[in-house]
C-alpha cells in the first residue's frame, strides 16, 4: 500500500505531560520541523536532522509520516552512540537511521493499525504490529499519535529505530 516510508530519527518523551502537549499547542500551520523544535522533547532528533542535512527535506511539502523518538528514546542507545553518529564522517549512517523513521505519505493512526509493514525512505520496511492494544513499530511503542503538521503527521515512539544491516 505504501510506496515509500521515510522515518526520521526518533526522540524519547521526557514525561507524559510533554507528550500530551504535542497536539494541543501545534496547529497544522507549522511543519514537522517547526513542531519538533517548539516541543522541546525532540532536541536530539532536531540536532541529528540538522547534522544530516535533512531540515529542508522535512520542511518540504511532503506529505510525511515521521516516527519521532523523544530525547529519552535516544538516551536508551549505548553511551556515545549519538555523539559518534553526529560526526561528519558518519553522516551517511545518520541519514540512513533518520530516513528509516519517515514514510513518504501521511498515515494517520487509524490507517497504521491496518498495516503489517511500511517501506521507509531509507528503503527498508518497518514491521507494524499491535501488541496488547499498543501499536509497535519494530521494537518501538507508539506513545502519541496523530500530531498534525502542515506537511504530514508525527507519531511519537519510545525507541530509536535502527535499520537492519544490508
What can you see in these coordinates?
With 166 residues, the protein is α+β, with helices and mostly antiparallel strands. It is built from eight helices and seven strands; from the N terminus they run H-H-H-H-E-H-H-H-E-H-E-E-E-E-E. A seven-stranded mixed beta sheet has the order 2-1-7-6-5-4-3. Strand 5 and strand 6 form a beta hairpin. Helix 3 crosses helix 7. The longest helix is centred in the first third of the chain and has 10 residues. It is globular and about 40 Å long. The relative contact order is 0.26.
Describe the secondary structure blueprint for this structure:
Layout: H1 16-25, H2 32-39, H3 43-52, H4 55-58, E1 64-69, H5 71-75, H6 81-85, H7 91-99, E2 102-103, H8 109-112, E3 117-119, E4 125-131, E5 134-137, E6 140-149, E7 152-157
Parallel strand pairs: 1-7
Antiparallel strand pairs: 1-2, 3-4, 4-5, 5-6, 6-7
Helix pairs in contact: 3-7
Q: Tell me, briefly, the overall form.
A: globular
Instruction: Tell me the fraction of residues in β-strands, as a range.
Output: 15-25%
The major β-sheet equals:
7 strands, mixed
Mean pLDDT level: 83
Q: What is the SS-derived class?
A: alpha+beta
Figure out the total of helices. 8
Largest beta sheet: what is the strand line-up?
2-1-7-6-5-4-3
- Give the topology string: H per helix, E per strand: HHHHEHHHEHEEEEE
What is Rg? 14 Å
The helix content, as a percent range, equals 25-40%
Q: What is the first-to-last residue Cα distance?
A: 23 Å
* Low-pLDDT residue intervals, each spanning 5 or more residues: 1-27
Number of strands: 7
Amino acid at each position: 500500500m505504501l510506496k515509500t516510508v521515510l522515518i526520521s530519527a526518533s526522540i524519547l518523551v521526557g514525561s507524559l505531560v510533554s507528550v500530551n502537549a504535542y497536539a494541543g499547542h501545534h496547529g497544522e500551520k507549522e511543519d514537522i520541523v517547526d513542531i519538533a523544535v517548539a516541543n522541546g522533547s525532540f532536541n536530539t532528533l532536531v540536532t541529528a536532522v540538522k547534522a544530516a542535512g535533512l531540515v529542508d527535506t522535512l520542511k518540504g511539502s511532503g506529505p510525511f509520516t515521521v516516527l519521532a523518538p523523544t530525547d529519552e528514546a535516544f538516551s536508551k542507545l549505548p553511551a556515545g552512540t549519538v555523539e559518534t553518529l553526529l560526526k561528519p564522517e558518519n553522516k551517511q549512517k545518520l541519514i540512513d537511521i533518520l530516513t528509516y523513521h519517515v514514510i513518504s505519505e501521511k498515515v494517520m493512526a487509524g490507517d497504521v493499525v491496518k498495516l503489517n509493514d511500511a517501506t521507509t525512505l531509507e528503503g527498508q520496511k518497518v514491521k507494524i504490529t499491535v501488541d496488547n492494544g499498543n501499536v509497535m513499530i519494530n521494537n518501538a511503542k507508539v506513545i502519541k499519535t496523530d500530531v498534525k503538521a502542515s506537511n504530514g503527521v508525527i507519531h511519537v515512539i519510545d525507541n530509536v529505530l535502527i535499520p537492519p544491516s544490508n
